Amino acid sequence: MHTQEVKELLEKVAGLNQTGGNERVKTIVHRVMHDVFQIIEDLDITPEEFWNAVYYINDLGKNGEAALLAPGLGMDKYLDIRMDAEDEQAGLAGGTPRTIEGPLYVAGAPVSEGFARMDDGTQDGETMILTGVVTDENGKPLPNTLVEIWHADLKGGYSYFDKSQSEYNLRRSILTDAEGRYTAQSIIPSGYGCPPEGSTQALLNQLGRHGRRPAHIHYFVSQPGYKHLTTQINLAGDEYTYDDFAFATREELVCDAVRIEDAAAAEQYGLNKPFTKVEFNIQLVVSDKPEHQQRHERKRALEA
Ligand code: MBD
Ligand code: FE
Questions:
Q1: Is the CB of 194 under 6 A from ligand 1?
Q2: Which residues of 203-229 are buried (b: 16+ CB within 10 A; e: fewer)?
Q3: Which residue's C-alpha comes closest to atom 4 of ligand 1?
Q4: Intradiol ring-cleavage dioxygenases domain: which residues (predicted)?
Q5: Which of 37, 56, 195, 256 has its CA 20 to 30 A from that of 143?
Q6: Which residues have CB less than 5 Å away from ligand 2 (the ion)?
Q7: Which of helix, strand or coil describes residue 111?
Q8: 56 — phi, psi (to 5°)?
Q9: What 3-state class would DSSP assign to 20?
Q10: How many angstroms separate the alpha carbon of residue 8 from the centre of ligand 2?
Q11: d(CA 65, CA 264)
Q12: Looking at the whole model, is its pTM more than 0.85?
């Protein structure tokens, strides 16, 4: 590993002796390949193990699961840990904590003001009323805040990726009302499980791990003048609330799902049967920097 021959090989691999290309990519590839070589040496990786890994990556790509394996290996969580530390240093800590986006957002969901019905009525799930107020850190309500919400159905599947669901089922964008409140009527989601025959689950099996997530609901929250928030809530009482394969759970983001039998309370939401209420209030942190006010770029379904 530490011979002149390997040193020169790595430099040529990363194009360090070439004038063209991208310097940042060269730096990263040089370091990655150095570390891969080092791992092969330190762990005495056999050719069989090496080629297994190569064809594993082929399958991962074929299955479209690279962005599913990433959170399973704690990479999304690690990026969050780094962004939290950055916020801390920049004096931007506080408010509702972030947690990972996950790979299943779809851009372009219908937008409404104050209220949205999220489910298409085809699944006979427990009715969920999901509501909360968006405020600043002093509790001042923030009307006209865009709250984007997406979650799974009773089978743990997400519309668009699960072609059996209707377009934008369980995906809505709600602008908060004059009191800063958003309210959604939907169905209580089921937890998510990695495709059992997929590449992600195959690796998790080798690690003795499951590929399950608790019932959860994703949020993007944005308002000019405030830090963009990417977060999720995990419903309390799920077997996996504190055992999420994607490491998205944070104590402040665990919400009770409260069964409400009272007819008058149901009537308040235009319902004539018992329902389950989930309350999630959100606090945003002031930032005048445009780069803080937007979600970071990544490839997303149907995003321009
Ligand atoms: C999900 O629904 C999810 O949110 C994440 C992070 C990974 C897989 C499925
Ligand atoms: Fe999810």
A1: no
A2: bbeeeeebbbbbbbbbbbbbbeebbbb
A3: 102
A4: 130-158
A5: 256
A6: 102
A7: strand
A8: -60, -45
A9: coil
A10: 45
A11: 46
A12: yes
